[in-house]
Amino acid sequence: MGAIKQHDWAEAAQDAAVDWRVSTAPVDYPAAVAAMEDRVAAIRNGTAPEQVWLLEHPPLYTAGTSANADDLLSPGRFPVYRTGRGGQFTYHGPGQRVGYVMLDLKRRNPDVRRFVQDLEEWLIRALARFNVVGERRDGRVGIWVARDGGREDKIAAIGVRVRQWVTFHGVSLNVDPNLAHFDGIVPCGVHGHGVTSLVDLGIPATLEDVDIALRQAWDEVFED
């Protein structure tokens, strides 16, 4: 575990300005952060292209810059990593597609709020390809799905960091993770709501299916 492996996209994706990277084995969190740091520095220096990195992590919790210690309900359950991204506590693990997004906003559009909105739209459009209606909610970070009885569950999380206008960290979308693992935290500090996944919604999607949807939706949001 922790080895970083990669496979190529189709020829059209290889020719895109953004480098798309997919790891086929879970990547340890410290290794991922170190790789992002290196890539962000290279993008800032003009020695590497922008990158979207799709991967899984082994089971772990991350604490963003706004994390409340009381929201870590099971401190010894999984490793906990303090991270420089915005947001609060988040779970990562197998069956969840993490997308680390490293873009040069100075070249694209130096507007962090717009960047976060674009990430939200990216997830919403990817989910729409599975006939899932993902929605924003005022005061609640991430993408939400309305369920029966007025219930709302979170299906995707967003947490970013920007350094000298280059972005890193990004999004996570629940494909088929063990949803019980979220019980060890208050996800993103939001009380009174649950979490869901594509498989929990009755959609037998794979990570590969989601990767294709994310790639297609990306072009609509970030490249059009």
Notes on the protein architecture:
The protein has 224 residues and is an alpha/beta fold. Helices cover 26% and strands 27% of the residues. It has five helices and eleven strands, in the order αβαβββββααβββββα. The chain has helices at residues 11-14, 29-45, 105-108, 112-128, 207-223; strands at 19-22, 51-55, 60-63, 80-82, 89-92, 96-102, 135-137, 140-146, 152-163, 166-174, 194-195. β7 (135-137) and β8 (140-146) form a beta hairpin. The longest helix has 17 residues, at 29-45. Residues 1-16 have low confidence and may be disordered.
- Give the overall average pLDDT: 89
In total, the number of strands is 11
Low-confidence stretches: 1-16
Shape: globular
Radius of gyration in whole Å, from Cα? 16 Å
The main β sheet shows up as: 8 strands, mixed
**Broad structural category:** alpha/beta
Share of helix among residues?
25-40%
**Total DSSP helices:** 5
Q: Layout of helices and strands, plus pairs?
A:
Layout: H1 11-14, E1 19-22, H2 29-45, E2 51-55, E3 60-63, E4 80-82, E5 89-92, E6 96-102, H3 105-108, H4 112-128, E7 135-137, E8 140-146, E9 152-163, E10 166-174, E11 194-195, H5 207-223
Parallel strand pairs: 1-2, 3-4, 9-11
Antiparallel strand pairs: 2-6, 3-5, 6-10, 7-8, 8-9, 9-10
